[in-house]
């Protein structure tokens, strides 16, 4: 059992999310950076979608009352085990009485703290992911706070520890631009607006969340008067409610959206976008849906 | 019928251009047909007003083959037919919403007349969206149509029965919301512990009953 001693950040239990409930308007939820979740899980021998702690903004402390193997991946952060620094992206053994401290975030937005066995919370509609607006999943449908107690699932079914990061984290992760597939409503925008969108540089706004990232820029083009019936959305869909901001829908975003979608972020780059903290810049690069799938398969194999 | 990629993991199929029941019924029939088929690699099928999305796992299915199967399924006559009589769901409502007097005044009607005009219509679920279990119901009596509030309330309580434009809905959760609140529903619109978590499905018929 793990006790949350302090929690200054924003942490929830997340796995790969609950797909299949779009007709009920239930968002997929799940990890903002699924590749980082998969890496943390692989390092402790879990299946790639086991439930872990997704943690952002600021630090905190977890106390272990029994031995555990954990790994932390995703954003770059300073970590310690009972006062001594420990690395990211490696399995680390904790003994009874040890404390994991997330000191601070250095770069990026979300870390994933995976524990051997995975976090044990009830499955809700097939997933342990927390969706706060409807209080689904996770720890009683809410964020993790000081005083909470977390359990891990039985270790019987987990694999062996990975000796090195099993996922491509180098060239693909470092590609600077966020690759985007042209959206179904792209042709509804003026040519001038489209050109400015694809060549523009955006800044991640502070009013970004697990539901959507708001990307701001100086207004330089009028998207025109666009009125289309609300249509199905997806994680990564880019909506442009005005000429200034682009809203990228993230895992807790709506299943159906009323604003025209100029593009959809390639799945392979969703985690990279999620790791851009407020104030960081984002530029887009066009890619075909087929090329985006090829990139995704290359990352996963 | 128009197919377009919705990113690398979904295809958007557009059935019509204007919001009306005939287009919606076709969307629902096609959504049901694709869902029933349980195509391998398909992770979700989501209807909206004039279109629906088929989400898939691109590492488990070839997009070209999937699209070909979907075109075939859509072309075959079965899905074009109505998938039977749709359910009629009755929702008991206490007409006690904080905006009821204002709505009555703006529409030039008595409160009793607003209640009568809201509760005598059989509504149609165009789609679910906005929040888990939130169903967009139409069509509201033309005499009750009002724009949404200029600034949304930061908290609308779960169960609030609301109107906006030509639509009405019941808020399933405590959420921010800009619709006009006219009553309170006596049933849970959403419950994750039920087999079917949302009370309403796209295509259902709905009656509000004064309680």
Please characterize this protein's 3D structure.
The complex is a heterodimer of chains A (301) and B (211). Chain A is an alpha+beta fold and 301 residues long. In chain A, 14% of the residues lie in helices and 32% in strands. Chain A is built from five helices and 18 strands. In chain A, a hairpin with a 2-residue loop joins strand 5 and strand 6 (84-86). Chain A starts with a strand and ends with a helix. The mean pLDDT of chain A is 91. Chain B is elongated and about 60 Å long. Chain B is built from five helices and 13 strands. Chain A binds chain B through residues 19-27, 124-125, 131, 133-136, 181, 183-184, 229-232, 234, 236-237, 254-256, 261, 264-267, 289-290, 292-293, 296-297, 300, and chain B through 4-10, 12, 14, 17-19, 31, 35, 43-53, 55, 58-59, 63, 127-134, 172-173, 175, 190, 192, 197-198, 201-202.
Which chain pair shows the most residues in contact? A-B, 41 and 46 residues
Helix content range of the residues of chain A, please?
Answer: 10-25%
**Main sheet of chain A?**
9 strands, antiparallel
Per DSSP E runs of 2 or more residues, the count of β-strands of chain B stands at 13
Name the overall outline of chain B.
Answer: elongated
Q: Say how many strands of chain A there are.
A: 18
Secondary-structure class of chain A: alpha+beta
In N-to-C order, the SSE pattern of chain A is EEHEEEEEEEHEHEEEEEEEHEH
Unreliable stretches of chain B: none
